Amino acid sequence: MNTLRFSLDRQGEQSLSEQIRSSIAEAIRQGHLYEGARLPSWRDLAAQLGVSRGTIKTAYDRLSDDQLVISKGAAGTFVSFVLPAAPKVVAGASRLPLPDIYQDVDSAPKLFQVGVPAQEGFPFKHWSRIVLRCSRQAVAEPLRYPDPRGELVLRKEIAAYLAVARGLLCSADQIIITNGYAGALGLALHMLRLDSEQVWIEDPGYPLTRHALSLAGYTPVPVQVDDQGICVEQGIALAADARLAIVTPSQQAPLGVQLSLARRQALLAWAKANAGWIIEDDYLSELQLSGQATPALASLDREGRVIHIGTFSKTISPRLRLGFMVVPMRLSERAGDTAAALSPASALSSQLAVAEFLRDGHYLRHIRRMKRLYIQRRDALLALMGTSVSLNNMAGLSLLLTLADDADDVHLAEAAKAFGLAPAPLSPWYATQINARKGLLLGVTNLSSPELEEGYQQLAALVAPHRQYQ
Ligand SMILES: Cc1ncc(COP(=O)(O)O)c(C=O)c1O
Question: Could you give the count of Cα atoms lying within 13 Å of 299 in the half-sphere of its Cβ?
Fold first, then answer.
């Protein structure tokens, strides 16, 4: 009902009940009140508008006579239908935000879908029990404002986890709980108050980072990624004045390359010399399928120039929308103030649940199990593909199928949808299409055996004329 505006004319000729009736009827016709929406109770609306309950009842009875609403006794009064002539609420409102990233928010992950954990690998029963218990605990808490940086229990557990799993030593005071990576990035951009518009990003790199910078008024400077990660020298040549670099050092997104030690040192030296900052997007944490996960870049940072961002989107669920940011000690107060003013941590029950999951060792066990599952799935896919691909084609949790330079990978990915497949095209990860490599990223997390073989054969036939063998 927030969209309803009642401007009652108490001296007017029309009765108050008629004015209320016509305001609601208009809101229904305009589509602001959708079919099935619940109207406020007589008592609530009467109190809100300063009229008698009888006035509201008369208005509702008339709406009911007109068949615009239906009364369901104690359950309330509901909008019964929207007139066919009702115009759309807002033109274009049905488009998903950033459609190149959020292509489908309604259906379950499909074969080859990238960026989502295994549906079957999720510990539903166990997780639901924890969530239930923590929801009860959250409801029983006193009704006061919580710490805007996030619950201390969770921040302490994350600090302990980072020390063990990512080689990163920090205190709970340096950690801010955020709405995933995206939330942390927004917070970091507000907090840093950069005096240069230019920001280095990896090319290819995560499209959301590029969008975020442009929306925040910065100029993303795409810096090439080679087999050692981001080319720091090129960054310096292209934008020496930049004060921020955003990188995925552990497993470059999307190519999967690890940032070499030499490049890590070069990047840290650049930040030190230029009073610059580095945002480390550690989106996969230790979820690495071959070899040992490298320690976080922040673990090498002696000058306090790295802001480390982690997320539970890949390791637990993207639906949680929970992540964290670890800031150098000297930024911790400013980070806390910025979070408090602009984006305080939310959903106490989820925070408590993740804290319990971490504390009782379930998180590490879950990651271990997922790694095993993903390795099995990756190997099943490699076996199907034969000798044309190898482990070298792995890119994070995806396998990169390289296509010829003149292939239209966006079109091929679209065509694959007809078979219920969801590979991701590589070229949109590049900032400009001139030097974009073409390919399809095949996520290995959601490959279940009954459908894998058939799905792969369909994809193989689709891309056969465009394959490029390396
Ligand atoms: C490079 C990269 N960073 C971060 C994320 C996760 O972001 P969030 O925590 O906002 O879900 C993703 C998800 O696909 C990603 O690919």
Answer: 16
